[in-house]
């Protein structure tokens, strides 16, 4: 299986990356042989992957990173780099290659300090003699200061350094940075393509895979979670009941509180899974005495960890709310399709009764306004409006009448 196999429904991007990996390989090979580099090259030092959530931006970047490190002997026989089997490909894909750094933050922003560390790392010559690859999965989370630090590195890269930045859209990245990157756009893969990969790669039963792919409208990670995680299914069921519960003000406020509580519950679960272990590890590293008493001068480090955990909790909560909002948007899109007799596939076939009820009880104009209310809530959250306030405003706007 080649490194590109997880890249679902992105034929054009895949071709471009494969061509660049081929040229990158030619550069490395000619250099090693003491020959002049090839004239034209599709390889470059900075790439920007954009596309809607779930389209596979990070997957594309990681596949490219692996192809750049491919050392398969087949390459000499005309084989493509990116075999998926050789040591270079394999270690890159599982995250242990010495020259591939994947930065995935669980925080809301990436600061100057973290970025400086990365830039320093990027200056190193690749230990394996090929490329030093830095994958920044959340380039949209760079603070402005961090962006400026990164800009310098992207402007004057070391000869064998490659930056792979991922962001939802071009607007999420500083103009000065994006103008120095080659830009690749990923699209939302088709429902069939997502169902296919769930069956092929994750061994999910075809019917369950098709239902999950449809319900999540081509978002691969969410589809997989929905098909395999009982909790995710319960969460979605709760969200899809919201439209039936917003008959009066009391119902609206209650539904809002429940959405917030569910997101908080998610964050708590993640915290329980990670925070305790992380704290224990740091305490041990700092030399805590028996009984947990900390040596002098370690309070700062402990405090820093606490801050970090708090920021991570906020992000988990936000991500969870975001998911709920996209489920709600999907619900009202289905309602609209029914009202307009559109011949599109219904995403939430499993709650058909609710869809029919709302569709018959309202008009397409009303449904459009409801979709707008959900989108407005997401925007408010992006602007850091207090979550409960934003969600209450939404449920009130969803109210019948
Ligand atoms: Zn390989």
Automatic annotation (TrEMBL):
Domain of life, source organism: Bacteria
GO cellular component, one term: DNA polymerase III complex
The entry's keywords: DNA replication, DNA-directed DNA polymerase, Nucleotidyltransferase, Transferase
Stretches of the chain forming a coiled coil according to its record: none
Known EC number: 2.7.7.7
UniProt xrefs under Gene3D superfamilies: P-loop containing nucleotide triphosphate hydrolases (3.40.50.300)
Phosphoprotein as UniProt keyword: no
Enzyme kind, highest EC tier: transferase
Catalytic reactions of this protein: DNA(n) + a 2'-deoxyribonucleoside 5'-triphosphate = DNA(n+1) + diphosphate
Transferase keyword on record: yes
NCBIfam families per UniProt: PRK07940.1
Name of the protein: DNA polymerase III subunit delta'
